[in-house]
Write a structure and sequence with these properties.
The complex is a heterodimer.
Chain A: H1 18-22, E1 38-44, E2 50-56, H2 58-62, E3 66-71, E4 80-81, E5 88-89, E6 95-96, E7 102-108, H3 111-120, E8 122-127, H4 134-138, E9 154-162, H5 165-169, E10 174-182, E11 185-186, E12 194-199, E13 205-209, H6 214-225, E14 232-235, H7 252-261, E15 267-270, H8 273-279, E16 282-283, E17 285-294, E18 300-312, H9 318-327, E19 337-346, H10 360-378, H11 382-389, H12 409-418, H13 420-423, H14 425-430, E20 436-448, E21 458-465, E22 471-474, H15 484-496, E23 503-506, H16 524-550, E24 559-562, E25 565-568, E26 574-576, H17 577-583, E27 590-596, E28 619-631, E29 637-647, H18 654-673, E30 679-680, E31 683-684, E32 702-707, H19 730-742, H20 753-759
Parallel strand pairs in A: 1-15, 13-14, 18-19, 22-23, 29-32
Antiparallel strand pairs in A: 1-7, 2-6, 2-8, 3-7, 4-5, 9-19, 10-17, 11-16, 12-13, 12-15, 17-18, 20-28, 21-22, 21-27, 24-25, 25-26, 28-29, 30-31
Helix pairs in contact in A: 6-7, 9-10, 10-19, 11-12, 15-16, 18-19
Chain B: E1 2-7, E2 10-15, H1 22-29, E3 48-51, E4 54-57, E5 70-72, H2 85-92, H3 102-115, H4 121-127, H5 139-152
Parallel strand pairs in B: 1-5
Antiparallel strand pairs in B: 1-2, 3-4, 3-5
The chains are: A alpha+beta, B alpha+beta.
Amino acid sequence: MLKPYIPGIGNTIPRADAQAKVTGAEKYAADYYGDDLLWAGVKRAGIPHGLIREVRTEKAKKLPGVISVLTGKDVPGTNRQGIVHKDQPVLADSKVRHSGDAVALVVAKDKETLRKAVSLIEIDIEPLPGIFGIDDALNPDLPAVHEEHATGNILLKATVASGDATAAFSECDVVLEETFTVPVQAHAFLETENGIAWQEPDENIVMIVSTQAPFRDRFEISHALGIPMNRIRIIGPYLGGGFGGKDGATVQCLLALAAMHVPGRRIKMWWSREENIIAGYKRHAARMHYRLGAAADGTLKALQCRLYYDTGAYAHLGAEVMALGMEHAGGPYRIPHTLIEGWCLYTNNPIAGAMRGFGVVQVSFAFERMMNMLADRLQIDPLELRIKNALRRGDKNCAGVVITQSTGIAACLKEIEQHPLWRERSVWKSAAGPFKKRGVGLAAVFNAMGYGRGLPDSAIAKVELTEDSRIRVYNGVSDMGQGNATAFFQIAGQILCQENTAIELIGPDTARTLPSGSASASRTTYTYGNALIKACEQLRQKLIGMASLMLLADTTQDLELLPGRVCHLTSGKEVSLKQLASMMSEQDRICTSQFIMPVVRGVPDTGKEFSIGFPHLLFSHAAHLAYVEVDELTGTIEVKQYLAATEAGRIINPQSFEQQVQGAIAQGIGYALSEQVILKEGNILNPNFATYIIPTACDIPEITSQPVEDYEPSGPYGMKGVGEVGTNGPLPAIANAVSDACGINPAQSPLTAAYVLECSGQKDAPFTGGNI
Amino acid sequence: MKISFTLNGKKTEIDVAPDRRVVDVLREDLGLTGTKEGCGAGECGACTILTDGETRLSCLMLAAQLEGLNIITVEGLAVDGRLHPLQQAFVERGAVQCGFCTPGMLLAGVALLKKNPDPSHEEIREGLSGNLCRCTGYQKIIDAVQAAAGNLYGKETP
């Protein structure tokens, strides 16, 4: 056991949640059952596009043990959910728009009865021609997924521009063009979507749910089902992973609907893995046309791109995902002239929404491949080319926004330049064994933080000195595994100087904690942390003020808050926190404070189509280096070594920082090498872990993380969010390394063995796996 | 059907349908929710338990198969509130993020160290390759197993 310690800033302290998680004591939403439990589940459309003629539920209703079978007709309220656009039915009423659409909801006495009842429901659907990809969505002759949407299957068309790209191309010494495609990626968190809900005798609904946005869930349920918000309580325990996939309603409205129909009973819904892959949110597939112009010395001059994001059947955050992609389309570089056009498209494919690296992962691949192609063409070292063009404070980024905050991309690239893995790359490459080719690849990436303009990125922290003199932090923003709760523990310890055993964390609960936004956008620790600093400072002042009265001190300057007590340093007199607590009313022992993330002040005259989420003020940065070995005979790629230099301001907890870097890179390696949701006319062909391949311990190399600290004045103790930036690097770094090894130019992912052979001109090569 | 087995050191008798999945017996009937379920199809390893010291996937086992076995779940690793050295290493080395794979990883790690008290990094990777983790990139888990191997070397493990 660890000795008690005072958690502080900048130290590696064990995560606040680690002990309970290693003993199996931590209760996730999935771990709640309860007496007399009922199970709820959903009948899904199974057809990607069509009009519902009839939903036949009689057989299911007659099955013994079935409590309730509900369809779209039984949904009160608007029957529509969605974070920005309310376009997704809780239960499809007249039309189905993707195979995973929920059409009927069943409540049954146990899982087996539920499974049988769901299989007894028959849906009669008149099929419509499907919109199965970007070209279909752009074809005005095909039917609209949402008839009411004014611009048909174009959810949003937008333009981000700076300077005069069209004119600038004519002055470039070199102009390169390429088209890139990336497939749908699944979050593959281990705890699938689930929750438990019940309706109290006073008709209030209580729900324990695996969610990244407990406060927004309340709004979604209220809107969709017509229940007043103050009658819904959402409790959000630690999540078994989220990565964006639990940002947005999954089981929430369905469970609330079930609870309303079967009052007083606890009702549990837990999606199967197959259901998670079919009906859960996904990363957007994208097609990206790039044209990049530069001077002969490598100075970037002009960028033109057309980006197409397939958002699937419902908007979710599709337009915002695309907005962030467009804002990052030119990489962390100075490019004076840009014209970036984007189309976010409705299709009958699975719903695409938020996922770590939110729209940026896609463009990072495209732009970093362009940079390598440029380096090749101009015979310039790819690292030198990147350093030469790297953004600095005061430069304009590709959206025309002047960068005013900490910007460490050049420092990250220089960190790589100094590292033995970069310096010794030639030796390593030349030592390749027979039938092996080795290559190294770079990527320079960045990722914005926060919601951007148009929506206040706010958190409200609450901290209490309890009656028994403990410090209790009420945290309203979910910890899905990223470790923000531990950072809050450290902040409270730092300011209030109490030992770890005297600090407790209360997790998200709309009845106990205060609205603090979603766990997303690399914002969690930054926004809530800033609010918590203010709340803790207030509590500290208050305790010292109270102590000065009790100790008859002339001035509060001589008083110090220490573990369990306040000490008058000049006289040595002390008063315990217990005594102080006993003198204070409950209200007096609580401090709350709100923080709102600053936004870009000079708004560029572009991207006007985005109502929210553009542009951003703060970015984290990273430079990655991948060592890969390619088997010449099979085309199989092995990543042998990986180096990441990451700048995300100052570091609050080096271990948590490294966890985020390594974990994000592992997800990126999966995206680069094997992950691909395979679609056939809107249906997913690989909805399980036997066929949707995420990396195992054997697939991820040693990942070296080199922190490159900078200071972000607006951040809590100078920090910025580090959750996402690492995901953006692996695909381009590995693709560039494969290019280096084999002399090919990968333009799509994943980089399967079959694709590598195809690029190498061995089109009749035997199929070699990695893809199905 | 009455089934008798040893669960985390305690003689246990239950009366359940013989075809009930062991993961449901543990989680729903016995309240041991430390054992997780991530896929229900033997692909992710989150539901790993030890049966007579061997790793087994409790989502693929039926209750009748428990008869006479010695079962260890994550709840049985710590003794009298003292963490198992591998649990301690997971805490200290940052091997825990969301924690949903952690119980299965720990049991896979314990079984590995019992068979091979001084594994190389490659042997650890191989030994844990049946357990998926989506948060860590595995490195800190591998480091933790290696660190625990140092502490456990030559000692009896459960």
